[in-house]
Write a structure and sequence with these properties.
Helix content is 23%, strand content 19%. The chain is of the alpha+beta class. Strand 2 and strand 3 form a beta hairpin. The longest helix is centred in the middle third of the chain and has 17 residues. The structure holds zinc ion.
């Protein structure tokens, strides 16, 4: 990542379009580590959480390595908007019950004190009948 930032500072590349070879989610997006894929397009990837808290629990990630919400700038507004707009459709496709009796929860942990474990921005989408393991 440090090399990417230096290269970006020199004007060669954008800092958040790079694959981080040490990042678990970058490896999942690249197919280097298997996952149960929910969705993929040019800029967004979604896959089932390996430790689900709820009957439906998947993660939505930008393909670009953005470490967390703390690095988000106005230029990411379109991408984040598209992720949030996609979430309800994927939630229903994955088995969440319809609003208002069903629904889903969206959570984005940020930083260590925010409970973030993998430092590649991700949106948890959880739903399905209660009780849940957590949350
Ligand atoms: Zn990453």
């Amino acid at each position: 990542m440090a090399i990417n930032i230096l290269a970006a500072a020199a004007g060669f590349i954008h800092p958040f379009t790079m694959h981080d070879p040490n990042c678990l989610f970058c490896k999942i997006i690249a197919g280097e580590i298997p996952s149960r894929k929910v969705y993929e397009d040019e800029e967004i990837f979604a896959f089932h959480d390996i430790h689900p808290w709820a009957p439906v629990h998947f993660l939505m990630v930008p393909k670009a390595h953005i470490p967390s919400m703390a690095q988000v700038t106005p230029e990411h507004a379109g991408l984040l908007g598209r992720m949030m707009a996609l979430a309800p459709r994927l939630a229903l496709e994955q088995g969440c019950n319809p609003y208002p009796d069903g629904g889903f929860r969206i959570v984005t942990n940020t930083g260590v004190e925010g409970g973030q474990e993998i430092h590649h921005l991700h949106i948890h989408v959880m739903g399905g009948p209660r009780p849940w393991l957590k949350g």
